[in-house]
Write a structure and sequence with these properties.
By secondary structure, the chain is α+β, with helices and mostly antiparallel strands. The chain contains six helices and 15 strands. Strands 1-10-5-12-2-14-15 form a seven-stranded mixed beta sheet. The radius of gyration is 18 Å and the shape is globular.
Length: 284
């Protein structure tokens, strides 16, 4: 079902991002936060301090996350941009505690995913309010044709991204947009869209869920065959398809998560090395 207007689709294609898009009801966002609390209880710590595997790829072992990445309102908006055959490539909880110095430097998702063509889209769903003060995302529209910038795995302290990756070239921030969202709204940005987020200076927790959606015709450029979760339409045979989890923390699903995590990390390292060699960047 089409939910975006022609103008919104054109704005996304011109700028590389679109916001805000209402997707969850207040009760739907509250339920997701409640389920996140149960996940943190199981993990034994808030997600920013827990084993990273409780923060990423959780659709493989949590039915409520599997249902979230299949949410019809989210998929309808994604389909309007990338077409009817949709896979989930990856998904991550992005949490900034009250007063947290956690931030993300300017970066592009395409750098380390290794997907072609560059049609990968991140749907960033706000489960709590994401204001400027709380450290929402800032984005930059392209200056001409979108391009991939040189990045370094800088290991920046307090980076919400594990490798502390950052764009090396200076960027013109005069055209920057600040994607403030209310709980239940989402933004979408293209894989080549430069984006960052600043620390959370508020007294409340900023919680977002980033879902990497790709059209099924997308291919991986690395040496490893990657996994994908088919959430709408038909498969094109380019990824190993994942099953939906039968129950929370099902042993078989946890084994699947282990394989997906390891494959993703191996691909990340390979893509980082290729990127650094191409741009002449010394490894961190």
């Amino acid at each position: 079902m089409k939910v975006l207007t022609e103008k919104q689709v054109n704005d996304y294609r011109r700028n590389g991002f679109l916001f805000p898009i209402p997707v969850l009801t207040p009760s739907g966002a509250a339920e997701a936060l409640h389920n996140l609390g149960r996940l943190e209880t199981h993990a034994g710590a808030p997600l920013p301090k827990a084993d990273k595997r409780y923060r990423v790829g959780t659709y493989t072992f949590l039915p409520w996350v599997d249902a979230l990445v299949r949410h019809p309102r989210i998929l309808d908006a994604v389909e309007d941009v990338i077409g009817p055959d949709i896979l989930v490539f990856w998904a991550t909880f992005f949490i900034k505690e009250p007063g947290s110095p956690t931030f993300a430097a300017w970066h592009q998702d395409a750098t380390y995913f290794g997907l072609t063509p560059h049609e990968h889209l991140t749907a960033w769903v706000a489960l709590s309010d994401a204001s400027k003060e709380a450290g929402c995302m800032d984005v930059l529209p392209p200056d001409g044709e979108p391009t991939l910038y040189g990045h370094a795995r800088a290991g920046l302290e307090n980076s919400i991204n594990g490798a502390g990756q950052t764009i090396l070239q200076p960027l013109d921030e005069s055209r920057m947009a600040t994607m403030e969202l209310k709980a239940g709204e989402m933004s979408m940005h293209n894989t080549l869209c430069p984006h960052r987020s600043r620390p959370n200076s508020t007294s409340f927790r900023r919680v977002g869920f980033g879902i990497s959606y790709i059209p099924a015709h997308t291919r991986n450029t690395g040496s490893r065959r990657m996994y994908g979760l088919l959430v709408r339409g038909r498969d094109h045979g380019n990824f190993d398809l994942l099953p939906a989890p039968r129950s929370e923390y099902d042993p078989e699903a946890m084994n699947v998560n282990e394989r997906v995590y390891e494959r993703f990390y191996e691909n990340f390292v390979e893509q980082a090395q290729r990127h650094e060699e191409h741009f002449g960047v010394a490894p961190a």
